């Protein structure tokens, strides 16, 4: 137990220490009050110097602040002399421990750059250069007015010369874009070029940003724009086909993907309107190629006449009415085997019903004639292809039709009639939509274009509606007569215009020369030529046909009945023929010779007709090419007529 005297001493010592605490508080308060009064006195003394740095109608360029007893001087002096004067005036102030100069000089900035960055929900940082004519506070007022009240601005921009005209308008325009960007978004001005980068806060802001940047302030242009669309958790894309057109809804990751989607929908619509409701957003997995996904959806949509193809939850699904029965297994196979990486197979819910409208098209180009669409049966398909092939010399016929119910009555007859008219055009198309047939394209002759509507109406079956939209191809520049004559000579000089023995069919060697002649006919309206087909050489025999030998025995027997007996008897000296026998032999020989001449003449005429027909089909007018006299053995001939 402590002694009473010891306890008393401890209490006296503790009381003395406790008495010091109020004294310390009084001392600290007095020091703080004195420091505050000193700081206020120092700043008040410097205000006069600050005010003298203001131009006639502007803000002072000098800014003062305290760090302890150090006076910090900031700003941009117009020149080194003014800076030295201000520092000298500050140096004679009473109170500051030292003057810390952070005063720069106003320079000419080239290029003149200014930037505003959104650093927080209600905070913006400015950097770069501001025009020396615009004060710091005035620029902050412009920026906060464009962004919104309550915005904190941290301005580190330095005054400089070289700003573009209407800088304040451009700065306010850029600042107004910042609320649509997430923190980190940045808007910059480099001379008269504006740029914006960052991530949009939502879909509305993304669209608003792109719309606004399409109309920059007058005198300014938009440079690099790198605005990321917002990220969407429920990312989906739908392509819908209806009887009136195609609709696109959902999201695409970029503007390039939007254009690809529109191209796919336009091709599917075949001229029908496309309803574009797409929005740009992120959320498509990185493993999925947007173009490959759109290609898959386009191929799937081509298999439906109405319905939709949807990408949702990472999978593609198809539902609606198939274009024909075979489209259902094709759709299932497409989702099973044709998916790009990262895309899963969804459901296929398709049903087949008769097509409406029922469409078929025959399209002629310089390379081929393509038949596409639907036909009701194989017989209709055969009739269409046959009608085309019997009228064409060069172009192959590509059959890409599919079978489907719902065809209008007399479809085959209507298409046969359309095929006949199509082969008279240089290029064009026959398009059937239910009972409406449209003939369109170009012809080489103005008269043919004029007659096309009447010809179409005359050949269509009863109950069908026809429309002809045929135009005459614009003629090329005309050439003079001498150039045309030289062109004919050049076209035929090296051509091998020989027909196969016994045949009137043109070979590939004919086409370059005949096409060149047809091309000359278009630019030489006064050109007239006669073409002549040759006969076969005497004794020439065509290759034997692919028939059993028995099929040729009657012909061989006929040849062997040419009565060689008299000749054989004469050689053997057995007996001279009497007058009657000699007369019969002479008559038989004359008949055989006449028959051979008729056959040779008939073959030559067939060859001539084949040449004339080809040139007419290739573009020469009927008055420009005529049939010349039949020739003997040798190549075909082309002769210039006066």
From TrEMBL:
Annotated spans, Disordered: 534-606, 622-642
Domain of life per record: Bacteria
Segments passing through the bilayer: 14-33
Ribosomal protein recorded as keyword: no
Biased composition (Pro residues): 535-548
Xref: InterPro entries: BON_dom, OmpA-like_sf
Residue ranges of every copy of the BON domain listed in the record: 243-280
Alphabetical keyword list: Membrane, Transmembrane, Transmembrane helix
Biased composition (Low complexity): 627-642
Compositional bias (Basic and acidic residues): 571-583
UniProt-recorded name of the protein: Outer membrane protein OmpA-like peptidoglycan-associated protein
């Amino acid at each position: 137990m402590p002694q009473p005297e010891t306890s008393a001493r401890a209490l006296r010592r503790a009381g003395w220490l406790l008495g010091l605490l109020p004294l310390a508080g009084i001392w600290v308060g007095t020091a703080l009050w004195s420091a505050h009064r000193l700081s206020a006195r120092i700043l008040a003394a410097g205000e006069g110097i600050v005010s003298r740095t203001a131009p006639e109608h502007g803000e002072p360029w000098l800014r003062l602040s305290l760090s302890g007893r150090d006076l910090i001087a900031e700003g941009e002096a117009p020149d080194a002399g003014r800076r030295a004067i201000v520092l000298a005036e500050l140096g004679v102030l009473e109170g500051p421990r030292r003057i810390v100069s952070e005063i720069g000089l106003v320079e000419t900035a080239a290029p003149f750059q200014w930037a505003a960055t959104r650093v927080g929900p209600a905070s913006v940082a400015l950097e770069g250069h501001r025009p020396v004519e615009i004060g710091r506070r005035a620029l902050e007022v412009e920026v906060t007015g464009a962004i919104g009240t309550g915005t904190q601005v941290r301005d580190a921009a330095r005054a400089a010369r070289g700003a573009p005209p209407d800088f304040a308008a451009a700065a306010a325009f850029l600042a107004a874009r910042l609320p649509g960007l997430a923190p980190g978004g940045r808007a910059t001005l480099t001379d008269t070029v504006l740029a914006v980068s960052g991530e949009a806060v939502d879909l509305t802001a993304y669209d608003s940003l792109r719309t606004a940047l399409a109309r920059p302030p007058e005198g300014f242009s938009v440079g690099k724009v790198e605005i990321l669309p917002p990220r969407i958790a429920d990312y989906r894309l739908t392509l819908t086909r209806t009887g009136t057109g195609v609709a696109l809804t959902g999201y695409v990751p970029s503007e390039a993907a939007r254009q690809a989607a529109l191209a796919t929908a336009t091709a599917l619509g075949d001229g029908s309107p496309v309803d574009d409701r797409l929005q740009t957003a992120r959320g498509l997995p990185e493993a999925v190629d947007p173009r490959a996904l759109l290609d898959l959806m386009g191929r799937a949509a081509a298999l439906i006449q109405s319905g939709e193809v949807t990408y949702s939850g990472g999978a593609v699904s198809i539902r609606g009415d198939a274009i024909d029965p075979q489209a259902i297994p094709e759709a299932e196979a497409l989702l099973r085997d044709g998916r790009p990486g990262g895309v899963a197979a969804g459901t296929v819910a398709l049903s087949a019903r008769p097509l409406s409208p029922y469409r078929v098209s025959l399209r002629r180009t310089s390379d081929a004639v393509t038949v596409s669409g639907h036909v009701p049966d194989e017989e209709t398909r055969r009739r269409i292809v046959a009608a085309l092939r019997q009228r064409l010399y060069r172009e192959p016929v590509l059959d890409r039709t599919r079978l489907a119910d719902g065809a209008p009555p007399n479809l085959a007859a209507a298409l046969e009639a359309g095929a006949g008219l199509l082969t008279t055009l240089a290029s064009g198309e026959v398009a059937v939509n239910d009972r409406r047939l449209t003939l369109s394209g170009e012809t080489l002759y103005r008269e043919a274009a004029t007659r096309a509507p009447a010809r179409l109406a005359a050949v269509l079956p009863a109950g069908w509606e026809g429309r002809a939209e045929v135009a005459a191809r614009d003629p090329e520049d005309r050439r003079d007569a001498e150039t045309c004559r030289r062109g004919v000579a050049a076209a035929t000089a090296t051509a091998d215009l020989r027909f196969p023995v016994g045949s009137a069919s043109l070979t590939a060697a004919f086409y370059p020369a005949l096409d060149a002649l047809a091309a000359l006919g278009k630019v030489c309206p006064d050109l007239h030529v006669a073409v002549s087909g040759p006969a076969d050489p005497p004794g020439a025999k065509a290759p034997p046909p692919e028939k059993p030998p028995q099929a040729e025995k009657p012909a061989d027997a006929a040849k062997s009945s040419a009565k060689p007996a008299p000749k054989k008897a004469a050689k053997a000296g057995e007996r001279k023929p009497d007058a009657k026998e000699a007369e019969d032999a002479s008559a038989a020989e004359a008949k055989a010779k006449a028959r051979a001449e008729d056959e040779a003449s008939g073959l030559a005429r067939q060859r001539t007709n084949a040449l004339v027909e080809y040139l007419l089909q290739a573009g020469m007018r009927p008055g420009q090419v005529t049939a010349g006299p039949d020739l003997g053995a040798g190549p075909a001939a082309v002769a210039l007529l006066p």
